Amino acid sequence: xxxxxxxxxxxxxxxxxxxxxxxxxxxxxxxxxxxxxxxxxxxxxxxxxxxxxxxxxxxxxxxxxxxxxxxxxxxxxxxxxxxxxxxxxxxxxxxxx
Length: 97
What we know:
Number of strands: 4
Radius of gyration: 14 Å
Oligomer: single chain
Largest sheet: 4 strands, antiparallel
Order of helices and strands: EHEEHHE
Helix content: 25-40%
Number of helices: 3
Strand order of the largest sheet: 2-3-1-4
Shape: globular
Strand content: 25-35%
């Protein structure tokens, strides 16, 4: 299955709003990972610990218009946050059976 992936840098306080914005814009999946490579293992039930610096990644359908997505992201988050795009790629995703 083909996909389009968009990743943004986000602080601890920005990670959830950025994640919600990507979902609002049609992301099929969103992940938040620490930028410093730190692993967060087995958090307490209900806890959502975040690092001080994170990467928020949204996975979109392959036919998503990249330029339009960034423009809509700027409309939702503002130009400054949308300028935080750190990676933008497309490719194939192996689907498990």
